[in-house]
């Protein structure tokens, strides 16, 4: 398997802890190329006050090069102030590229219909229905920490470790045994040889 090109979408107020377990593992792996982008390519500030200068703007992306799109949560999804990401997500989904959303980013996928026909999760079913009035995927909702179905990965906001594990599995970052060892270490403090 070749290198997985993983792009993380950042915006002012994104929930930095939700990708804190995911990105270091991707960054140090030879199997992954990790890039950060914003809509305009300008510096943003996370909810924790971390200032980040992205690698690219959305206009600089080559969709054919993207293997995985990561959408971290943040209040901007809830107040619908994020603009300019719709066409990218639509094109990636039409090409069956992996889209991984956590916490409030799941409301964007729900509102746009991407969760209607795949198993998925969010912060809670009632939360998803409230925040995404056009959501019609209730029959596919799973009360789980993180769910992968076809090209869609979803997680609730208190499950960044489970979210990372699903992305690792989908991209085959490590073999299944090593992914489980990583998970047990970070989730439960257990190291298994």
Describe the protein.
This protein is an alpha/beta fold and 193 residues long. The chain has one domain: Class I glutamine amidotransferase (GATase) domain (Rossmann fold, 3-Layer(aba) Sandwich), CATH 3.40.50.880. The chain is 31% helix and 19% strand. The chain contains seven helices and nine strands; from the N terminus they run βαβββββααβααββαα. The strands form two sheets. Strands 5-2-1-6-7-9-8 form a seven-stranded mixed sheet, sandwiched between helices. The protein has a two-stranded antiparallel sheet with strand order 3-4. Helix 4 packs across helix 5 and helix 6 runs antiparallel to helix 7. The longest helix has 13 residues. The mean pLDDT is 97.
């Amino acid at each position: 398997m070749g290198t997985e090109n993983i792009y993380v979408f950042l915006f002012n107020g994104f929930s930095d802890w939700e990708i804190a377990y995911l990105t270091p593992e991707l960054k140090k792996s030879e199997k992954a190329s990790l890039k950060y982008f914003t809509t305009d390519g300008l510096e943003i500030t996370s909810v924790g006050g971390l200032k980040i200068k992205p690698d690219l703007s959305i206009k600089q992306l080559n969709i054919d090069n993207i293997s995985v799109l990561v959408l971290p949560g943040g209040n901007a999804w809830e107040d619908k102030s994020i603009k300019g990401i719709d066409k990218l997500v639509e094109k990636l989904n039409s090409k069956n590229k992996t889209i991984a959303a956590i916490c409030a980013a799941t409301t964007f996928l729900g509102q746009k219909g991407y969760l209607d026909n795949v198993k998925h999760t969010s912060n809670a079913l009632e939360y998803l229905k409230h925040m995404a009035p056009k959501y019609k995927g209730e029959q596919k909702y799973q009360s789980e920490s993180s769910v992968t179905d076809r090209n869609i990965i979803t997680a609730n906001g208190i499950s960044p470790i489970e979210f990372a594990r699903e992305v690792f599995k989908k991209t085959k970052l490590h073999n299944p045994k090593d992914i489980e060892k990583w998970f047990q270490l970070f989730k439960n403090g257990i190291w298994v040889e």
